[in-house]
Amino acid sequence: MVVFFATQLLTVVWAVTLLGDGSSNRREQAAFLVAVQVALWVGYGGGSWWVAHRYGSGIVEAYGARFSRWDVPVGLVLGVVMQLAVVPAIYRFAFGFLDLDPGRQAQEFTNLARGGGDRVLLIFSAGVMAPLVEELFYRGLVLRSVQRWVSPWATLLITSFLFALVHGDWHLVPGLTAFGLVVGYLALRSGRLGGAWACHVGFNATTLVLLLG
């Protein structure tokens, strides 16, 4: 938990120090978001790596950072289904009576990617690196740490809700909590991160296709 809160704090401090508030124009906003993403990669990935090597035998053994033959196809399909069917159903149930847009944050993010280079950077950031470091941190370091103290189901609930909360938009909490439960279950059930990684890639990639297409 100390690593978690330190990661969040350092991410904000580093990004703000590098680029101020990033609010003057679209190019500076995009640069600011890239800086935040890089800070998250370093914080999540670096923090997870440090703990695994400081107190264990590396990320493969400590977090199950490996794949099996079926992890990628099963995970990708499950991620697409979650994004296209399950999460929209949750939002229709949770927010159907309110004038809310749970996809607002993602749309604002992708609106900054107008050129080809911007889109490549966005796809690499949200479609590849974010799933990699977030799963390493949340379903690797955090999930396995929490599991030492509570039951598997409590572990799933705690880590999934925490994962949803740190995205910074309460509109996203129901859908991301449900998604966290799925990838958390994959990690707990298999003892590997491969399926969770693939599911997260499928989930994020589907969002990017819908918003950039």
Low-confidence stretches: 18-23
* Helicity range: over 70%
Strand content: under 5%
Silhouette: globular
Q: Radius of gyration in whole Å, from Cα?
A: 17 Å
Instruction: Give the helix tally.
Output: 9
Mean pLDDT: 81
Q: How many structural domains?
A: 1
Intertermini distance? 39 Å
Q: Could you characterize what this model shows?
A:
There is one protein chain. About 3% of the residues have low confidence. The chain is globular and about 40 Å long. It has 9 helices and no strands. Helix content is 79%, strand content 0%. It is mostly helical and 213 residues long. It has one domain.
Topology:
Layout: H1 2-19, H2 26-55, H3 59-63, H4 71-95, H5 104-111, H6 116-147, H7 152-165, H8 173-190, H9 194-212
Helix pairs in contact: 1-2, 2-6, 4-8, 4-9, 6-7, 6-8, 6-9, 7-8, 8-9
Short account of what is shown:
This protein is mainly alpha-helical.
Properties at a glance:
single chain, mainly alpha
